[in-house]
Amino acid sequence: MNLSMFQQFFNVLKRVKSIYQDCKLLLRTNQQTIGLEIMEQMALHQESAYERLYRWLQSECRLLTTESPEISTLIGEALDGLKERQVLFKYILDEYGTARRNALVRGFIDALTRGGPGGTPRPIELSSHDPLRYVGDMLAWTHQSTASEKEYAEILLRKLKDWNELQKTIQTLLGYITEGLCRPLRVRLEQVLVSQHEPVTLYKLTNLLKFYETTIKQLLPIECQLVLVLDEVSNLSSKMFLNALNATATRLIEKVDIPTNDLNLSDELRRTLALLRDILETHSTSMIPFESKRVDFQQIVYSIIDPLLQMCSLSATKLGVIEMAVYLVNCISAIRTTLAVFAFTDEKIDMLEGQIEANTDTLIGEQATYILLRTDLLDAYRIVEKQQQESNTNVTALALKPGMDTVTLKAAMVKFDLYLASPDLYIMPQLKYLTSAVIREKIKKRSVELICAAYASLYSAIMDPKNNYANPYSIMPHTPEQIVKLLS
Amino acid sequence: MAKAYDYLFKLLLIGDSGVGKTCVLLRFCDSAFSTTFISTIGIDFKIRTIELDGRKIKLQIWDTAGQERFKTITTAYYRGAMGIMLVYDITSEKSFDNIKNWIRNIQEHASAEVERMLIGNKCDMLDKRQVTREKGENLANEYGIKFMETSAKGNINVDEAFFSLAKDIKAKIDKRAAIDPLGKPAVIKPKLDPHNKKVSTSFWSRCSLF
Question: Which helix (DSSP H) or strand (DSSP E) does residue A290 occupy?
Fold first, then answer.
């Protein structure tokens, strides 16, 4: 069949249509009988032509089963000619769709099991041991093939004048063609997912599936079967990932370890933080849209960090106040450090920093108390504090109170001088277990500030004449300012 | 029989992030250039039909992201490629040194038959050149592939590079078809032989309406 024969056919068809239209004029004259006869004859010829056109297109479409089909411009012309018979036109599209659908499924199975000519590229199935590559290769093949099918459909339908109609027809056709891939693809994707129990791999697969769902969605109608399958599988993957995370979290809470003597992180906590780091690294490099990333992050945090904090609190319950604070600072700092380098963590970091701050404040108070206790100034300081809180009427002079006499205070000040000489010897032993040197320094600095404030409070009380100290300067020879200078 | 195209070639652009793969593609397909750097997310493709030796060739060109984090995605597209352009930036020694890694990727993931071509992009930036033309040619010779320096910005050698790669793919296909006329590779669009009995002409041979 050549172009001139093709044009002849359409010229004759055009002539038949023209005669049919012209005969309508005869119906208005007294030549109605002949007019009707000719119209009937032309209608028969027209239907015969459309029937032949349909049969030819049908046989041509059935040949379009190679990976790259050979769609001649004549097929497009013929299809355009058939447009006036919508039923036949639709049948041809179905015929084409079926041929391409079969070709696509066969191509997919070949790519999976046979690979390229001469064995390269290798069959996709050969990488089924590597879930990310296996899933990636299948979905990339699907994406490339869908793009090519869209091309072929555009060539087939390029004669359609109405752009909106063209797009709609192409989309419907593509939806039908790619539907053939749904079953073999779904089976393999689900097979990969159910064989995975490792949260990081599941999360990587979830991101990969979401990326391809978004990418392939741009080529296909949103309600088509392939898009729905990808959506379902990526939701399944996401669900399985969260289940794996929750299982990890449940294990954490069920298996609460008593902290080790060095008040450091337990092995379980370290493992979970390493897992969290891997997940967040995957999260930060994933290709899913920004908003999805935020939602994802909240789910991860909810599933891991909250149970982690719960585990830390539970395992610290049997410890003393100081040990508990040190242990919690160590644990929460480790969680904070893990989160710090990633996006969307600000809110959670603020919350963690609040908890670190609260425990650090406990340690600052305990450290200051520890120094005052070792220098025998704690009782004196408490008496002064109590006196300051009492109303000024009927207040007993400090010098008359037990433990506040000059001899006792002088003995305490000797010990305090020893502290001033070597303040580092007066650090609580538990503080050496703090993993953060910055926090340790902060505790030292802030506890010194408290000591200076306590000294200033004692100093002003002893110097106060109403407290009846005969020679207050012999008890406290250093001014608060000098103490601040010595300790800074 | 008139056809929309005689061949469909799938090409792939690979190379480090920022070497100008997307700009080269934009220049070739849309005759445009943008100075704004927007990193490609995963993968993208454009289409252009060219004419070569009187034949229409549709090029489906896949543009990949160069960043390491997209590697899982981009390597999956090597499988379908018939031609691969390895792009480096002549103002970046690092991007040139990495070509060896990209070649290794091709060997691992692509078809053994794939045509390859080395492209040194941004050749308009002579004052910032870090990789000499000679170095590019030597590397191309080492791997037995063609080499060109291009500039998407200055529209230098961009069309020539794509046409050259398409020509090599076409030559390989035509050669294979000549050796094995029965083996019909998916990409070949042979002219229909009127004597071929398989061609459905029954309807057209009796297409008179009366």
Answer: helix A290-300
